Prior knowledge:
Pfam families: CHAT (PF12770). This protein is of the alpha/beta class and about 375 residues long. The protein has nine helices and 14 strands. The protein folds into two domains: about 10-145, no CATH class; about 160-360, Rossmann fold (3-Layer(aba) Sandwich), CATH 3.40.50. It has helices at about 50-60, 70-80, 85-100, 175-190, 205-215, 255-265, 295-300, 325-330, 335-345, and strands at about 10-15, 30-35, 45-50, 105-110, 140-145, 160-165, 200, 220-225, 230, 240-245, 255, 275, 305-310, 355-360. The radius of gyration is 20 Å and the shape is globular.
Amino acid sequence: MAIDAPRPHTLVLEMMRTENAGDPYAFRFAEQSYVVRHEDGSTESAVFPWGPEVLDDLDVVQRQRSDPVARQRLGSRLHAFLSSAAWQAHEARIAEAVRGGRPVHITVRSSAAEMYALPWELVPLRSTGQHLGELPGCLIRYEWQPTETAPPDPDPPPEGGRILFAWSASGGAVPAAQHLNALRRACLEGHYPFDEVRDVVPAASLLRLREALAAPGPPVAVLHLLCHGGAVPSDTAAYGLILDPSAPGEAPDVIDASALRQALAPFTRSLRLVVLCACHGGNPGAPGNHLGSLAQALHRIGIPAVVAASGTSRARPARGSTSSPRSAWISSGVAARSRSTRPACGSTGWPTTRPSGCSFPRWSPRRSRR
């Protein structure tokens, strides 16, 4: 007899900048006031102390060997920002859910671009000092406002759909064999078709990726992209994917969020999940920058779920999870897929580094249950 999974405790943190609320990018490098809206409709004001110290800490916690004091300090600043009677009640319910073995799903929703540069995973619980990101079963999702999910075609979508695995070592060696083995085992265990000739794109360039997505046959439902991330050539800090060049003999391409969005936009009616196994795939770079993160760009064009790393990542399957996360992506809902992926996205695990799993799922009453 099947045992129902415990019902998750859910919480939405919705924040809006007080000044120039209609402009997502009207960020000022100074103390800013925000309106925090609660699920019961009540609101309260909060101030975040943007300044050199915060930017220094943001830079430090994204390094592979980050400063534990900076992590705790940044987490404390975020806790102080949220510190109110309402948040204290939320904390108590989160702690109660964890004690009861229930998962916790927290959605960060904002129309202010700079709020996505903050590591909400580092918010500590007052009672234990644990970061939200180190709590078992805690999933933090990010939802840009306003966005809409691209309607599937056909609707409802058929069960399954292809998994496309694309990888590039242009930015350095990547564990492509381990990822391929994980996908192969998961598909075998889940009795799921996976054609390694058709569904694997080695030495991926943006052009080869587009061609593989547009190839005849069943549409691609899941894109699993493995490569390195790197800084985009710009005066503003932003990150992209390092892929093979589209033309032979050229330097590797750094694919920024805009270029990736344009490449995948024609396939939003079939893509249900994109996994970016690359450093900084979910990192928006400088607070308030107009380009945003790679994951956020895909989320905003309507792809229902995007999973990426906010910081550095070894991009190799975590021990004991070489097949189970992939099986979860195939056989479970998007929430289960995202949650099971988070330990594998971390650079050296909780809480040694900044929790780096970054999920952009979107939920709506019309989503498919298949």
